[in-house]
Design goal:
With 298 residues, the chain is of the alpha+beta class. The protein is 21% helix and 37% strand. The chain is globular and about 60 Å long.
């Protein structure tokens, strides 16, 4: 069932165009692919239109995955040397104060104690990444420094972490890879949006706050005001807060996501949410050209 945005609330419409073009130095015998390119539809983000074009032509299978993300699967069964995936979407975002939940009269404090049934549901978002114990201890100590400084106030602690990662860590495009760990980011104090999201997720889980990875896009307007302006593809975090639910935090920009952020998928980590992934039955060398544009919709 599609949720409807309140008619009295202000909204913003954005158009997203995401193009991946693959080329190979020899034919690919066949391949299987999984896509997360269709934006999430819920009360705060309405999907007005979506078009997916794949060349060569393939048969698509769409389904809702275990994280409630729209997912597309397809196979290319005939040999090919080039593959084009182009997705165009228009979304309408509800313009509300992202800090509205902070005004609630009851303020949670750390440590947070979850009910057994909550732990069962939230378990996948509470387990930190597998790292050496000494590295996890350093991340825990770093997270606890915010807890102590903010007198164990949950929201103030999370706001402080979000803002500190923006202010004290440096965004350096191309400085990391998918193998970069949260400990690497903490040690080097540099990375890209994926790295800052991974570090904040690990820190939150170490202090028993459920955290999940969000993959999507950010509208920057090319004004130079956003640190992520070089890459419209974006990653941020959602944290599950007692009596509030999932709330977004963007440590790359030190803000709470609002009408500049378009959500595509959520999951435990990047692999659950990757816009494109697949298996090639070939040893060919691949070249990839990615073009992402986020702009105001007409």
């Amino acid at each position: 069932m599609q949720s409807q945005l309140p008619t009295s609330a202000a909204t913003r419409r954005l158009k997203v165009r995401h193009s991946n073009r693959y080329s190979y130095n020899q034919p690919i015998a066949r391949s299987a692919h999984r896509l997360h390119l269709r934006p999430i539809q819920d009360r705060r983000q309405a999907l007005l239109s979506h078009r997916l074009e794949i060349t060569p032509a393939v048969q698509l299978a769409e389904y809702e995955d275990v994280f409630s993300n729209w997912t597309t699967r397809f196979e290319v069964r005939e040999p090919y040397s080039a593959l084009s995936i182009v997705a165009e979407s228009v979304v309408e975002l509800l313009d509300i104060d992202p800090f509205d939940f902070a005004a609630l009269p009851s303020r949670a404090t750390l440590p947070v104690n979850w009910m057994p049934w909550e732990l069962k549901m939230l378990g996948p978002y509470l387990s930190p990444i597998e790292l050496p114990e000494t590295q996890l201890r350093e991340i825990y100590d770093y997270a606890m420094s915010f807890v102590t400084t903010n007198n164990s106030d949950l929201l103030e602690t999370l706001f402080a972490i979000n803002l500190t990662l923006f202010r004290e860590f440096t965004y350096v495009h191309g400085s990391t890879s998918l193998e970069t760990t949260p400990f690497d980011v903490l040690s080097n104090k540099r990375g890209v949006c994926q790295d800052f999201a991974n570090l904040m997720i690990c820190m939150a889980r170490m202090i028993n706050i459920p955290a999940r990875y969000v993959c999507g896009y950010i509208f920057t307007g090319n004004t130079g005001e956003s640190r992520a302006q070089s890459d419209a593809s974006h990653a941020w975090v959602q944290l599950y807060l007692p009596n509030i639910g999932w709330k977004g935090f963007d440590p790359t920009n030190g803000v709470l996501p609002a009408t500049n952020h378009v959500r595509i998928a959520v999951g435990r980590h990047y692999r659950d949410t990757a816009p494109t992934s697949g298996t090639l039955y070939s040893s060919a060398q691949e070249q990839l050209a990615v073009d992402v544009e986020v702009s105001p919709a007409d």
